[in-house]
Design brief:
Layout (H helix, E strand, L loop, with lengths): L6 E3 L4 H10 L4 E4 L5 H6 L7 E4 L9 E4 L2 E5 L4 H5 L2 H6 L1 H6 L6 H6 L2 H7 L5 H8 L3 E6 L2 E6 H4 E3 L2 E2 L6 E8 L5 E8 L9 E10 L2 E10 L6 E2 L1 H7 L6 H14 L10 H21 L1
Parallel strand pairs: 1-3, 2-3
Antiparallel strand pairs: 4-5, 5-10, 6-7, 6-10, 8-9, 11-12, 12-13, 13-14
Helix pairs in contact: 10-11, 11-12
Bound molecules: flavin-adenine dinucleotide.
Length: about 280
């Protein structure tokens, strides 16, 4: 199939984007890397009247570290994050996520803003943003607002973005000294979307974890923070008993639906396996 006809605009400034958004209808779509949007156009799952291409808009791309914050422009490509020394040093969870996102051709075009706006529940970057306590910088003609990532994802492919708004950047707290993070997933083949994934972030002192955050993906309609499992783990020495209690508690945090990849029970089992492996790797590193 081919896309339904649409008008196409290539503004070079954010004000130009906002003007177009103000003049156009609800069925306008922003085009970033096109790696999720273009297939939906080709299958006519999306039939916008206007596509506003963000690729020539100045100031939307780049990685800057200042103080304790790493700011990533929305149009920054996955491949830029993958090869950035700043990301490797200050956001190791994001660096670990990159090679697991699709394949090199997808990472060459796909953007972090597109990934967060698309809000696929099995995607890596939304889970990283939630696990690391990132803030989404949302811009519109009215100004800028910042939304914590844990409040940004509302449901399946649903976010807090309102009409006339776009993601301008994402602000991550740089990983503090003494902390470790891991991004792990189970997928049928390398590059596939995760069956189950986990972004884990914690202060590590010997075999004790504290200030722990666990964001699971692929198990819910949005990234899921596992609060009950964290309660079992917080400040404890990581032992087989503690891991078993945390795995048990995970059953209160997650209620994965059955889907084409397997039953909810299977996914919960995989989440428990991932939890145990990931945390053991964090204290053992
Ligand atoms: C074969 C294949 C495998 C893939 N595997 C994975 C994978 O394993 N993990 C994974 O996470 N992703 C995967 N992807 C998706 C890829 O990471 C996409 O790049 C990403 O989800 C969307 O980013 P994009 O820049 O291409 O956005 P686009 O496709 O251009 O846009 C996606 C949506 O976001 C909106 N949007 C884009 N930018 C903004 C913005 N700044 N503000 C507001 N709205 C915006 C668009 O209007 C559109 O609705 C895969 C894609 C393909 C084709």
């Amino acid at each position: 199939m081919k896309p339904a006809p649409f008008a196409y605009a290539t503004p070079s400034t954010l004000d130009g984007v906002f003007d177009l958004l103000a003049r156009s209808g609800e069925d306008t779509r922003l085009l970033a890397g096109g790696q999720s949007l273009v297939p939906t156009l080709a299958f006519r799952l999306s039939t916008p009247s206007l596509l506003i291409d963000l690729n020539r808009v100045a100031g939307l791309s780049g990685i800057t570290a200042s103080g304790d914050t790493v700011r990533i422009g929305a149009m920054t490509r996955h491949c830029e994050l993958e090869h950035s020394s700043v990301i490797a040093a200050k956001l190791p969870m994001v660096a670990q996520a990159m090679p697991q996102i699709g394949h090199p051709a997808i990472r060459t075009r796909g953007t972090i803003g597109g990934s967060l706006a698309f809000a696929d529940p099995a995607a890596e970057l939304p889970a990283c943003a939630v696990a690391l306590g990132a803030r989404i910088v949302i811009a519109s003609r009215e100004g800028t607002r910042r939304v914590p990532a844990r409040d940004f994802f509302k449901g399946l492919y649903e976010t807090d973005l309102r009409t006339g708004e776009l993601i301008a950047a994402i602000e991550f707290p740089a990983q503090p000294p003494g902390y470790r993070s891991r991004l792990a997933e189970l997928a049928r083949r390398h590059g596939d979307y995760a069956l189950v994934g986990l972004g884990a972030h914690a202060k590590v002192d010997g075999d004790r974890l504290s200030d722990l955050r666990l964001a699971f993906f692929g198990v819910s309609s949005r990234p899921a923070l596992a609060a009950q499992a964290v309660r079992e783990l917080e400040g404890q020495r990581l032992s087989p008993t503690v891991l078993a209690l945390a795995g048990e508690a995970l059953g209160d945090d997650l209620d994965p639906p059955d889907d084409l990849n397997g039953s909810g029970r299977t996914k919960l089992h995989l989440a428990r396996v991932l939890l145990s492996r990931t945390l053991s790797g964090m204290v053992g590193a």
